[in-house]
Design a protein that fits this description.
By secondary structure, this protein is mainly β. It contains 6 helices and 22 strands. It has a single domain, classed as Porin, CATH 2.40.160. The longest helix has 10 residues, at about 10-15. It is elongated and about 90 Å long.
């Protein structure tokens, strides 16, 4: 039988969509709980900007990226090898598939200590999340047609999948102050308000996909039985025209962005050191034995106008078989082509109008930092996703779940070993170093030592300027004897 499915690249493109579209989070894991995090710590807890021994600090630039998937394997590429030589393959097998990707860029994030009890922070962030998941799907790399796909047993189950993407620019302002301060403990609290502009948004949702083996004209095939599908994207993509210059396209693209809002809340509870100090000791105001933070992050949303090619479809016309689908969609180059071929395939077609909202990755974060001795600390961070409580269909989540980070850190240097177990049940061991104003980190050491693990991990860097003098001279002398 003639194979009408001559667009194998399209099938692979759909799978790649589940893997590597740039997707924010303040995931500078190394600095979680650190007194020296400063402006980089505000994304994990707005109260954290108080217990920092600098009068001010400015993150000139910070970039963080991470990605995770169980569907794609990238070959011949590690963090320090040439990506031009890399190749990819889709993982064979019968299992539920997922993909996650996020990226954030921090620009001129500034923290200013008004005094020991009050501080402010502000700055600009570029953030993006992309995530996708499917029902249980069987796949092998010889699939070239719809029939091949169903021959693997995929007809004998309800098929579903979803894809959500949101990218935005945000300007934030943070206020933090001390609530109480006594001989043994101190409580700090902070709040962040954010106003954003939605740059890019989109979603795909497929439900109840099913097919039945049938025989037509003595030929076995698969008849499509049922489906509900909807897909939408932000209308600013409609304004990108080939005849315009890149600069004009960018202006038109950004000018149609919509406004969104969100906020963060946080508290930090410090248990002070019970070591006896003397007049010879430096100021120990920022020292602690325990620091416990609780924060509610990214409570809010971004909104987007529907693009003109967004659609909602349901049901199949009678006698739509795998062969009909392959022929009808054999020459698709853009979404409009796909939409033009839908009549005659599906029963109901609607074009959504107005706006759609994508809920930000709301979460509750518990952070516990323990001083050990000298410059040694250990930090634990737990994150619980809350966006599902909104009931919204289009929502984002955070990959983080549990992270434990031993660290050795002074004012100028630091070495960090974050160990994380994420929501996709992946265990990553990362690392980071701090040299003066520069922070370099990696989420998963496998990205360095293996050439087929780049699809799971990521990295981060930040350039942070601080004054030469501290609000208090931060040398730990609790174990030193006074001079004679």
């Amino acid at each position: 039988m003639v194979n009408h499915f001559n667009k194998k690249w399209l099938l692979h493109a759909l799978w790649l969509l589940l893997v590597h579209i740039n997707g924010y989070s303040q995931n500078y894991y190394a600095l979680q709980g650190s007194n020296y995090a400063g402006s980089l710590g505000v994304g994990n807890n707005p109260a954290s900007i108080l217990n920092t021994p600098y009068k001010w600090d400015v993150t000139i630039l910070g970039v963080q990226k991470k990605n995770a998937t169980n569907s794609i394997i990238i070959h011949n590429w590690s963090l320090f090898s040439n990506p031009a030589k890399s190749q990819y393959s889709i993982k064979d097998g019968d299992f539920r598939r997922f993909a996650y990707d996020d990226i954030n860029v921090n620009l001129l994030n500034t923290r200013i200590a008004l005094n020991r009890n009050k501080a402010i922070a502000f700055g600009l962030n570029l953030r993006s999340y992309t995530e996708a998941s499917t029902s249980k799907l069987n796949y092998i790399d010889t699939v070239t047609s719809t029939r091949d796909f169903f021959d693997l047993g995929n007809y004998n189950r309800k098929l579903f999948g979803d894809f959500t993407h949101s990218a935005w620019m945000e300007f934030y302002v943070t206020w933090a102050q001390t609530i109480w301060d006594n001989a043994d403990t101190r409580l700090n609290a902070g709040v962040t308000a954010k106003i954003s502009r939605g740059i890019s948004g989109g979603y795909i949702n497929i439900l109840n996909g099913s097919a039945t083996p049938t025989v037509h004209n003595n030929i076995s095939d698969y008849t499509l039985q049922d489906v509900f599908a909807e897909y939408g994207y932000s209308s600013n993509y409609d304004n990108w025209k080939k005849g315009k210059s890149t600069s004009q396209n960018m202006r038109d693209f950004l000018s149609h962005a919509q406004t969104g809002f969100s906020f963060d809340l946080g508290i930090e509870y410090l248990v002070k050191s019970q070591q006896i100090t003397t007049v010879w000791d430096d100021d120990t105001y920022y020292d602690y034995d325990w620091k416990i933070g609780l924060s509610l992050l990214d409570i809010g949303f971004n909104q987007f106008n529907y693009g003109i090619q967004s659609r909602k479809v349901s049901g199949f016309q009678p006698n739509v078989t795998d062969t009909v689908v392959d022929i009808r969609f054999a020459d698709i180059h853009k979404l409009q082509d796909f939409n033009d071929d839908l009549p005659g395939i599906v029963k109901n077609i609607q074009q959504p109008r107005g706006m759609f909202h994508v809920i930000n990755p709301a979460r509750l974060v518990l952070n516990v930092d323990r001083f050990i001795m000298g410059a040694w600390y250990i930090n634990g961070n737990a994150s619980l996703n809350l966006s599902s409580l909104t009931g919204s269909q289009w929502r984002l989540t955070e990959l983080n779940m549990l992270t434990v980070t031993p660290r050795w850190e002074t004012r100028q240097m630091g070495f960090f070993l974050p160990i994380q177990f994420n929501t996709k049940e992946q265990l990553w061991v990362g690392g980071a170093v701090k040299f003066g104003p520069l922070l370099l980190g990696i989420h998963n050491w496998a990205n360095v030592f293996s050439k087929n693990k780049m699809q799971n991990g990521g990295a981060y860097l930040a350039l942070v300027l601080r004054p030469n003098s501290n609000t208090a001279k931060r040398l730990d002398k609790r174990l030193d004897c006074p001079p004679r």
